[in-house]
User: Fold Branched-chain amino acid permease (Azaleucine resistance) from Secundilactobacillus similis DSM 23365 = JCM 2765.
Amino acid sequence: MKPVIAPAFKAAFPQTVPIMTGFLFLGLTYGIYMHEGGFSFWYPCLMALTIYAGSVEFVIASLLLQPFDPWSALLLTLVINARHLFYGISMLDRYRGLGWKKFYIIFGMCDESFAINYATKPAKDIDHGWYMFFVTLLNQCYWVAGATLGGVLGGLITVKLPGLDFVMTALFIVLFLNQFLAEKNHTSAYMGLGLSIIALIIVGKTYFIPVTMVLLIIGFTIDYRRKGATARDVD
Assistant:
């Protein structure tokens, strides 16, 4: 029988090298951030293995220091990673017939793995299922290695690193700016900022996230219908 695993790994690895550099650095920062919060190195390691959602892991790190509130954790996770619903829908056809590999590929589908598996097409003699599997596995290994290494090094660093808790805020700012610069129409960005500020002023920081989500759903629905009506008028 013709070998399929080794060729798929060799095809997947070069595609993930750019992700490796970013994941190792960001994972390192996350591990040190967790240590600064008082957690042992196995916390970021275990969270990277089981949660594997970078931005959510930063949020969970702060939630672990607060009173136990599973509903807030669930809501924040759904809000932050809601985009994965759309990723999954676009990958349904590609995941058919992959057997047991499908379950891990679904679990490990981060932004970077989705981008590679969706945009790249391996050679015809490469098994597509194993190719997506190794892209996903390699990317998670990079993240777990970076987070674990950061947790270990955090215990060896004797100097204080003030301002490290700003990493999570900086991460979301970078993601927002990247999306803002990529869009030609900034209506959604302005709407998100404006409604978030309004919700924060009205209900305070404790409940502003769910209120903001409700306002955004209403706002985007109105904007979608307005654009649909405008398109019909033009026709």
Q: What stands out?
A: The CA atoms of residues 131 and 227 lie 40 Å apart. The chain has a mean pLDDT of 81.
